[in-house]
Amino acid sequence: MGSSGGGGGGGLTWKLADHPKLPKGKTVAVVVLDGWGEASPNPYNCIHVADTPTMDSLKNKGVPDRWRLVRAHGTAVGLPSDDDMGNSEVGHNALGAGRIFAQGAKLVDLALASGKIYEGEGFKYIKECFENGTLHLIGLLSDGGVHSRLDQLQLLLKGASEHGAKRIRVHILTDGRDVLDGTSVEFVETLENDLSKLREKGVDAKIASGGGRMYVTMDRYENDWGVVKRGWDAQVLGEAPYKFRNALEAVKKLREEANANDQYLPPFVIVDENGLAVGPILDGDAVVTFNFRADRMVMPAKAFEYEDFDKFDRVRFPKIHYAGMLQYDGELKLPSHYLVSPPEIERTSGEYLVHNGVQTFACTETVKFGHVTFFWNGNRSGYFNEEMEEYVEIPSDSGIPFNVQPKMKALEIAEKARDAILGGKFHQVRVNLPNGDMVGHTGDIEATIVACKAADDAVKMILDAIEQVGGIYVVSADHGNAEDMVKKNKKGEPLLDKNGNVQILTSHTLQPVSIMYSSCFLANHREIKDKGKSQNTCFDSWKWINYIVGQSPSSCGCLQLANRELLLGLLLGSSFSGLVILIENNLAALGLLDNACHTASHKRFKIMWLVIRPTINIIRSDCVNLVLGFVSQQFYGFASLHVPIAIGGPGLLPGVRFRKDVPDGGLANVAATVMNLHGFEAASDYEPTLIEVSDN
Ligand SMILES: O=C(O)[C@@H](CO)OP(=O)(O)O
Ligand SMILES: [Mn+2]
Ligand SMILES: [Mn+2]
Questions:
Q1: Is the ipTM of this complex over 0.95?
Q2: Whole-angstrom distance, CA of residue 21 vs CA of residue 274
Q3: Record keywords: Manganese included (predicted)?
Q4: How far is CA 496 from CA 127, 183, 521, in A?
Q5: Which pairing describes strands 204-212 and 268-270: parallel, antiparallel, or unpaired?
Q6: Measured between alpha carbons, how far is 578 from 556 in angstroms, rounded to an integer?
């Protein structure tokens, strides 16, 4: 590779070697679709169900040279195991830094396992309060592994008490976003059980307050300080609209409210028999925020740490010893005390580009703003060089769940990116499109479908601008979410709750993400559009057929020739289970097929059907939707998966294609790829590029 940057220690040079073949000076758009994994088509795959012609075209025209999958979860992005789903922090860290770092989750695991956590400066600092004060632990009660983990809290409780904490108060934040909604009840039961064991050992340990993570404490990027204030009032002042004698009762009761869910539970405090809060934070106490992930802890950390603070009226600012599980912001050195050192993510691609004369523009809306800046730059806030960079934040809607406005600010983000591309000043234009993720987390399938379409429209606008300037695009994602909205069993079948409804999955997934590129898709896309909507629907439907008959369009022909009676026979046959696709222009067949399906369903076989009618004047989009609607009630999903990456654009050399020798590439490989597209070799210790340039 022969580049010069990096090398750790002394002798660091920022100068990157020129790429031997790729030119400099092209405008490169880097588009990250948040929560956009690749999975098999099924009705709970909102990306599939949504009308996403731009992303579909990237795939259809790009495979395999300019579209491929990369890993976005587990060890490929520095998480403890391959059972860990991806998330924005690790995803954007990897995308921006080009290397895999042991991430917070893993570093905390190691520090707890070795006991080193108790020897560090941070623990010693909070320990100073153990004699006369209370230890408060504040964080997300979950085993999602995105922000925190219950087993780490359990170990910390045990370790702190063994190291002298005599009075402990836990302030819980319920999840329902990285784990199933309703699991707060089990987590509280487990924690209560642990605390009662501590009490048996003479430690005065209790849950003191709580609330849902999206409504209490865990805001990010200054979207809504009211969220942090609600937490402060409950945790520090011991004040909340709801008071309960114990947390189990609190969570169960609050969940009974109409539309209640774990993410948005209102704040509550636990009170004693006299109605007094059992654990407000007082002078002389120690406070630890036990989340390892940074973004949603920066705001509460400021409230606990900063003497000068004007974001809300704290009423009382107790003199405490405060430590984070990690240091959450490397630039602000916030908080100044922490139990475990964060990964040292330095020499990120953004910093290299700035040193090599590439002007950068980064933009998204508030709820993801730090993703393309702070996380991208290795958890540091601020610019590397203000003259070379511009970061634009579009204010997010606040105070509403995102299913209410599923289009979010996708259009505005795309417009800003378009203007930056057409303006000619910037050579890297980087955006995050939040829709698939933020709306996916609400568990609202209909809204998530709208969200995916909005993100697709935004990609189209950005790619059109790239086409105009003869630039290059890289489209990828940080992890999955919207492509899988239902909890499934090992066979890939949706799990039902006790009322027979499918269990909605609000979390991220283990899916890989894609990266894609192409210079020709735009023309093709227009061609399809010009022929009208019905043709478009037909085109979209081919995805289903391709999937079923083994991804090969030629085998579709076989199905098309298949005799209808034969298919119905199969359907009613005792051993058949699966999906039938009928290419049919005879409406009478619909009723027949429907009947057959019902008969067969009584035999417990999972059968569904999809009718594709090939003639334009018979296809009506409402008709096809009706069929799909039927399918969604009957369908049992498929397992398997990844996130896509596509590269392309008119500025790309024709010989550029994805390498075949990095088959298991992860998100960290994208940084070197992007550096190459800017005309540079990547730093030598970066994960290898995904592309190669052939001479033909
Ligand atoms: O909202 C968040 O905090 C996480 C999920 O817990 O999502 P993302 O990693 O996409 O930011
Ligand atoms: Mn994300
Ligand atoms: Mn998310």
A1: yes
A2: 76
A3: yes
A4: 47, 15, 40
A5: antiparallel
A6: 16
CB atoms within 10 A of CB 490: 6
Better-scored residue on pLDDT, 617 or 232: 232
Q: Is the pLDDT of residue 91 over 90?
A: yes
Say whether pLDDT at 187 is over 60. Answer: yes
Mean of pLDDT over the chain = 83
pLDDT tens, position by position, 287-312: 999 999 999 999 999 999 999 999 99
Structure tokens at 57: 């075209």
CATH superfamily of 105-340: BPG-independent phosphoglycerate mutase, domain B (3.40.1450.10)
Q: Are 79 and 105 within 8 A, CB to CB?
A: yes
Distance of alpha carbon 691 from alpha carbon 662, whole angstroms = 9
Strand duo 643-648 + 472-477: pairing: antiparallel
Ligand 1 atom 3, closest CA: 296
Q: Counting atoms of ligand 1 from 1, which one is nearest the CA of 91?
A: 9
Name residue 334's beta-bridge partners: 329
What phi, psi does 572 have (nearest 5°)? -85, -15
What DSSP string describes 397-434?
Answer: P-SS-TTSSTTTTHHHHHHHHHHHHHHSS-SEEEEEE-
Residues 596 and 565: their CA atoms lie apart, in Å, by 11
Closest among 530, 477, 516 to 649, alpha carbons compared: 516
Separation of alpha carbons 55 and 43, rounded Å: 18
Nearest CA to 327 among 116, 124, 121, 527? 121
**Nearest alpha carbon, ligand 1 atom 11:** 88
CA 39/CA 37 separation, integer angstroms: 6
Q: Which atom of ligand 1 is nearest to the CA of 178?
A: 6
At 94, which helix (H) or strand (E)? helix 88-97
> Which one of 88, 349, 396, 519 is the catalytic residue?
88
Task: Give the closest residue to 679 by CA, choosing from 27, 2, 7, 31.
Answer: 27
Q: Is 142 helix (H, G, I), strand (E, B) or coil?
A: coil
Let me know if 3 is a catalytic residue: no
* Number of the ligand 1 atom closest to the C-alpha atom of 175: 6
CA of 508 to the centre of ligand 3 (A): 6
Q: Which residues contact ligand 1 via a Cβ below 6 A? A: 34-35, 87-88, 146-147, 177-178, 296, 437
- Other Cβ atoms less than 10 A from the Cβ of 565: the count is 9
